[in-house]
Each structure stands twice: as structure tokens, then as C-alpha cells.
Design a protein that fits this description.
about 180 residues; Methylamine Dehydrogenase, Chain H; four-stranded antiparallel sheet; about 0% helix; WD_REPEATS_REGION domain-containing protein; WD40/YVTN_repeat-like_dom_sf; Coronin
Length: about 180
Amino acid sequence: YSLSWSNNGRLAVASRDKRLAIFDVDRGEKKPVVLMPCHQGSKPWRAVFVDDSTVVTVGFGLEGSKEVAIWDLTNSSSPLERIRCNQSYGSVIMNYYRGNRFFFLSGRGDNGIQVYKYNNRSMNIVGQFQSPHPFRDICWMPQEYLDSNSHEIGRCFRLFLPDTSVVLSTGSRRR
């Protein structure tokens, strides 16, 4: 369902078999160096490297609630932290800005975006954006195009129903 590269040449693969596979591509490994079960829900899920030995995954539990998990690849028996987010029925839309360590989570058909801050192998919710209309899809701008002078932490273009128009939204850091 998703691929993510680390800075040291590892590839994280979130697949249909509900397991996270880590490949060491720089060393030419053809089999995963780490293989572990993650989210047990049947919907697609995402994984992203936050540093060379830590992966954050976003998926669904058995009861259908969206959950975020932080994994230490040196000890992959259980997550460092697992956070239940909300009941969501659409597939996960996730964006992570490495420079400021903010995660933005939503789903197709949701009308909100949850904002999390990653710090020292822990996630804290710092805000939420609500819209009167459910999103059809979201596209995030690359971090280098954010306005750092105004302390902007993220910007997305939202495609929503019923108008199916593109809307620009921004968020700013608290001073």
C-alpha cells in the first residue's frame, strides 16, 4: 500500500498481508531484514520513516478505528506507542514533513485533518482542522514551498464535495 525511503537506504513497504517489511537496498538484500505485523484492519495503511531506525504507521484496527503506531526497528515485537485516532471509513491520507516533524492525517470521505507532532519517539496531537464538506482527496505541498517567515507548518489543496473545487488551506505555528 505504501513505500518510504530512509536516509540510510532502507525501504519500508506496507503491504496487503498486514505486515511491514524493511529492505536494506543499499546492501543488496533481496529478503526483508525486518518483517513484522502492524495493523490488523482490512483497509489500506501507510508507513513512513521518521529517522533511520523508527517508522510510523497509520492504519486501522480490527474494530475499524484509525490508529497511529510508532515502531523501533531494533525491537519490533510491539510498537513504542499506539494511538487510536477516530472512527474513519475512508482510506488513509497521510503527510509527514521531515523538517518540522508534523504529521497530517485524514481519510477519503472525512471532513477533518488531525495534526500531530512527532518528538522523541512520541506523538502528540496539536490541532485539528474541520471542514463542512467531506474531502474527496488532498494534495500536500512540498515543505520547501512553505512560507517559513510566517511560521507555516503545512499547506494542502483539498478536493471536496459537492463543489469539487480546489481549496488552499494553511496552518501556522503558535508563537
